[in-house]
Amino acid sequence: METCIIKSPLGFTKIVGDVDGITQVTVLNPEEKETDIIPIELEECATQLQEYFEGIRTEFSLKLNAQGTDFQKRVWDALEQIPYGKTTSYLDLSKMLGDVKAIRAVANANGKNPLWIIVPCHRVIGSNGSLTGYAGGLHRKKWLIEHESPYKQQSLF
């Protein structure tokens, strides 16, 4: 497994993967040191993440190899169907997966998503429109949703 750390507007980001695909993208809270050399297996992921943060990329095109249960993988696949700039609720995600009663299990699988930003768990909000739990911290979730919003706040000055 190869690993690198890149700098992003939300902190340092760790990328893990190999020739079989990207297995993990996580945000790191403590100050980390940026990797001097990015392994070839991770270069495309690092490039696409930078393009996302620069506002150039709205979809990722990467070979992914997330490790999880079959149910978790179904939830993560459903997350990838949420369009850039849109949000959905945990309830609606549960309905999309065919079991409205699975809302807690869906929320739990969402929280275990190992591919931060690439599998857009940040696009899932509470039924009342509130920002609810986010492994990377609610301030990051808010930033990501605002970053993807088609309605950008304009400066008056």
From TrEMBL:
PROSITE patterns: MGMT. Residues 70-149 form the Methylated-DNA-[protein]-cysteine S-methyltransferase DNA binding domain. One of its GO terms (biological process) is DNA alkylation repair. Residues 6-65 form the Methylguanine DNA methyltransferase ribonuclease-like domain. Keywords: Cytoplasm, DNA damage, DNA repair, Methyltransferase, Transferase. It is found in: Cytoplasm. Belongs to the MGMT family. This enzyme catalyzes only one turnover and therefore is not strictly catalytic. According to one definition, an enzyme is a biocatalyst that acts repeatedly and over many reaction cycles. This is Methylated-DNA--protein-cysteine methyltransferase. It comes from Algibacter lectus. The lineage of its organism: Bacteria, Pseudomonadati, Bacteroidota, Flavobacteriia, Flavobacteriales.
